[in-house]
Amino acid sequence: MAEAMIRLDGIHKRFGDLEVLKGVDIDVAKGEVVCILGPSGSGKSTLLRCVNLLEPPEKGDIYIEGHDICKGPGSGTGEQSWELDFVRQRVGIVFQQFNLFPHKSALENVTLAQEKVLGRSRQEARAKAKELLDRVGLGDKLDQYPERLSGGQQQRVAIARALAMDPHVMLFDEVTSALDPELVKEVLDTMRELAEEGMTMIVVTHEIGFAREVADRVVFMDGGVIVEEGPPAQVLESPREERTKQFLGLVLDR
């Protein structure tokens, strides 16, 4: 097997007395789309935030393109060195909440980090932003402020903003959960296009249809551990574990 784009090895995370992740192992290959399902509180979102070092794990190793981001230079001194720059340059993340700057237009929201973090010129950053906003179907909304955009449009601006940093991996954390049902499709369509173009993606979602259609692999989590994983047809249609069957029964009956 080729070197995994992302590899998590024995990841543990707790918040006070609550152990949220209890030794999670997972590999994600380049170009693979992995959808993570599970009930609220199962550790799905915390797992994503560990990959991006928004929540550094207490124990375990995370490798991105073979590089252990939890053990950078200086780790031998007994202090963990979190290699944030390395991670931020390679891993984009989109959250349930759009987190756009309300006083900046769609174009400015996608331009800002390119200039501040990547050091791109204003002209280069604007050209990239226009290209990406057009790609997500918002080429006619460049000068609109977030309050004038629908929830689905705001989420697509957030996706364009993440893509503007040229990530090697995209993380999506329940990105359709805050949207009205009629706005969900336009965001999922954008994510489908990314998958078709070969973007490596980890998607925390409750959208079973999206997972069935787009994922290369489905992971079911509960209680801070991976209960079951495999091809979508196997996990979603013929789950082996009783806990997976219970969860899917509840979700699919809605």
Please tell me about this protein's structure.
The protein has 254 residues and is of the alpha/beta class. The protein is built from nine helices and ten strands. Strand 9 (217-222) and strand 10 form a beta hairpin. The longest helix has 16 residues, at 181-196. The chain is globular. The termini are far apart.
Task: Give the structure's gist in a few sentences.
This protein is an alpha/beta fold.
Instruction: Give the C-alpha Rg.
Output: 18 Å
Physical arrangement of strands within the biggest beta sheet: 6-7-8-3-9-10
Helicity level, as a percent range?
A: 25-40%
Q: In total, how many beta strands? A: 10
Number of helices: 9
Could you give the topology of this structure?
Elements: E1 6-15, E2 18-28, E3 33-37, H1 44-51, E4 59-64, E5 67-68, H2 84-90, E6 91-94, H3 106-116, H4 122-135, H5 151-163, E7 169-173, H6 181-196, E8 200-204, H7 208-214, E9 217-222, E10 225-230, H8 232-237, H9 242-252
Labels describing this entry:
254 residues; alpha/beta; six-stranded mixed β-sheet; four-stranded antiparallel β-sheet; 10 strands; globular
